[in-house]
Automatic annotation (TrEMBL):
PROSITE patterns: GNAT
Broad EC category: transferase
The protein's name: Acetyltransferase
Classification of source organism: Bacteria, Pseudomonadati, Pseudomonadota, Alphaproteobacteria, Caulobacterales
InterPro entries: Acyl_CoA_acyltransferase (IPR016181), Bact_Acetyltransf (IPR050832), GNAT_dom (IPR000182)
Natural source organism: Caulobacter rhizosphaerae
Recorded GO MF terms: acyltransferase activity
Length: 170
């Protein structure tokens, strides 16, 4: 039995999502954003995007605390409207390795398969150095589709490539 559940995010989750993302962003390699880049507007955008064809999910522990969040947007250009993109997942460092990320992705994939209009693709980017995330995404069915050389400049000034990954649902 898991000690958390996954459910759709609501506006009432905004403050907890903000705190979660700031905590994860403070960890080396935690998020692409730095803690100061995680703002109330950023969280409001994620919540609004889910209401506009995207998906926003939270993992909530049995005591009611958020231990994870995932959001993804639907592309608005007609030719790409079957694509969910700009995916971000944040798992509280104290909960990592306990199945939270996998559970969020499984609910996302199940949700995407039932959406109208239909979703045929979910895409994401992850840092090349983040091999643990790449393995998780591959276990979930995502495939590496490319590499964007030198796309991310890390806080220490070094650059990292982004790995482009996609999951076809059709």
């Amino acid at each position: 039995m898991r000690d958390f559940t996954v459910r759709p995010a609501t506006a009432d989750d905004a403050a907890a999502v903000l705190a979660l993302h700031r905590k994860v962003a403070a960890q080396p390699g935690g998020l692409a954003r730095q803690p100061e880049e995680v703002t109330a507007d950023y969280v409001a955008h994620a919540l609004a995007a889910s209401a506009d064809g995207g998906v926003n999910l939270v993992a909530e522990s049995v005591d009611g605390a958020l231990c994870g969040e995932l959001h993804v947007e639907r592309m608005k250009v007609a030719i790409f409207a079957h694509v969910l993109t700009d995916l971000t997942v944040a798992v509280d460092p104290d909960w990592q390795g306990r199945g939270v990320g996998s559970a969020l992705f499984r609910v996302l994939i199940d949700t995407a398969r039932s959406m109208t209009p239909p979703v045929g693709r979910i895409e994401l980017w992850t840092g090349a150095a983040n091999t643990g995330a790449q393995r998780l995404y591959e276990r979930l069915g995502f495939r590496i589709e490319g590499r964007m050389i030198g796309r991310g400049r890390l806080p220490d000034g070094t650059v990292d490539d982004d790995i482009v990954m996609g999951l076809l649902l059709d």
